[in-house]
Prior knowledge:
The chain is mostly helical.
Amino acid sequence: MDAGQPSVRDIASKTLVISHSTVHQALSGKRLPRWGAIELIVEAINGDIEEIRTLWKRALLESSRELNTGEMDPDRATPDGHAGRYKMLSSYDPNLGADMLAFHAARKLRQEGKHEEILEYLAPRIKSRRRTGLIEPYLDALNELGRRGEMVEILEDLRDLEMGTARSANYIADMLANLLEDWDGAIQHQKRALRLDPNNATYAWFVGLYLEELALYDEAEIYHRRATEIDPSHKNCSESYLEMLIGSGKFQTAESFAKASPLVNDSDIRIHLIRALSLQGKLEEAESLCRSIGQPNDIEAGEFSRVLSAMGKYDEALNVLRKFWSHETYGVTFRMMSADLLRLAGDTAQSEQVVAEVEAELSATPDSVD
């Protein structure tokens, strides 16, 4: 990057849209920020947007990843933990007991930060048995020690093997995707994980996400739908499916899915429903849904104003936005949207005044601007 080490205030002033406190929150690492804020920050420091977006997507996957099999490690069982333990204990692999003991020993060493000792301990155990779950703590230890070359070598060897457990297959898929960006290999292993654990919504979701990376959207849609069928209450799965449906112009299907979803009252799912209705021209229904919200949040207010604007109700749309003019993240955006509404309503003078006020504010106090 060409920006050196700018302060959060410098970055905020260059974005022209978000405040220094928002920049600080985005860079603090306390929680994953929305892509919109990250994109503005990357642009402000002349960063590689595509590279950072890839990293952000990886972080999104990691933050959403459920540790959802009981294989090898009962402490990582799903909410349906008994089923996970049953699958683990019902294996007839004669080496399973020894593998479990080794896994727990490696976990203890990891807690103590003894990564070199993990490698020494596990190396002879995985020499001829790389398909087992022991490969996960071994690769994790290599990663902690920064030995990427060895990780890549092992992953290339594993690429065309079928892992013995769903968790191992899922782990290798994750490594192939995030370390090598080997989407074909990731898809192969993720599908293997799903075959071994067919009721795992997250596994189906990941297959869909990896297929999207190869622009195989029709197949990706199948897996996103399957994920929602496995777990209708899995929000990430539902959002991905709705985004695919709307992006491919299947607005009616998106509407039907959102209305039938147990998450229909969730803000993010509701926004997708509003969009699906609006894109079908069902503006009155979209408006009614927006009015039923009561106290809309910032994103809902933005959608509501768009619906009202499409209906020619510029004054009311403007009133919706005015409530968020001082919003930390979207205040400037909403004021500029308001300027457009004023222009559409024929009040050119007022529109130009709003624009002038925003420009003056940005020029006078860049460090405190939204």
